[in-house]
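Q: What does the assembled structure look like for these inputs?
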Amino acid sequence: MSRLVRMDQTGHTTMAEWTADDPVSVEAALAAFRAELERGYYAVVSEGEGRAEQVRELPLDAPLVILRRPIAGG
Amino acid sequence: MAGAEGLPELAGVHWRPRVTGRSLARTGRLWTLSTAAQTVPFVLGAAALTALRPVLAPVSVVLLVHAWAIPELYAARGAGVVRRRGAPDHPAEPVALGLLGDLIDHRSRELHRRTGLVLERARLGVWLVGEKGALLVRAGGRRVDCYCVRVPDPELPPSDRIAHLLLALRTDESGFATVANLAFSGARWRLRRRLAPPAREALDAAAPSARTLRAPALRPGWSSHVCTQGQCAAGAGGRSSSHDPSSDILQGPAG
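A:
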């Protein structure tokens, strides 16, 4: 089961869960993913220390996709 | 995939040249020169006054205090970037801490529990990521760069803030350093004295890792790479998301 989580004021919120062989859950995850990107979130797949990839399409095989807010210089 | 393009936040600071190992070394040298230009006149003035009019020795002492205080104030500003600010009793902190814990290894989890900072080894050096800033301990462990960088959302729990910065750092280290604002660049010993004890512990933990980072002998035609103890990430084989071919590590003078 893959998860799409959004980091927010609640710590994090699970926006969608899907399995690649379940088209309904995939469709719901894709819709949630697009909606969050439109809200200004960036999607990232962490791959261990020193490695992460920003994605614009939902990687259906990734176990965890994290949505983050933009950062800025302080 | 946006890894090869870098952080999207770079569009907001399009006038800044991308940070590389070379530019960090150059910035470090300029920082040291600038500090020297501000302090040396006070020292020379103190010496001249005492030599010409020994009765003015108390004035010389005041000048020397100024010369001592200037770099200390800069270092204090640098130390401020990792000062803990978020409310530790934020109701969502346990949830945020769980997600952050999933992103880092056991050693970093332990260090974060004690110090509030997450240690991350990367190409430019070893990072200590806090809620509203990060320290970069450069290769060799002698020089530290202090960056102000944050998520502009005051409602986020502290560990979520760190997770945001950590993911951005992992996506594009050079872009992360470019987006962040440099608050201080100088000797590790100078910064260490100005840090709170927990952050000091984190800096001490980062230094040995930074010492294991080695700059390659740069020769024409060689792709840059950084070897760390037990592993070597070659430039040609590095991932596009975390590899910047121009980020060869060059150690600047610490001062």
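Residues 2-68 of chain A form one domain.
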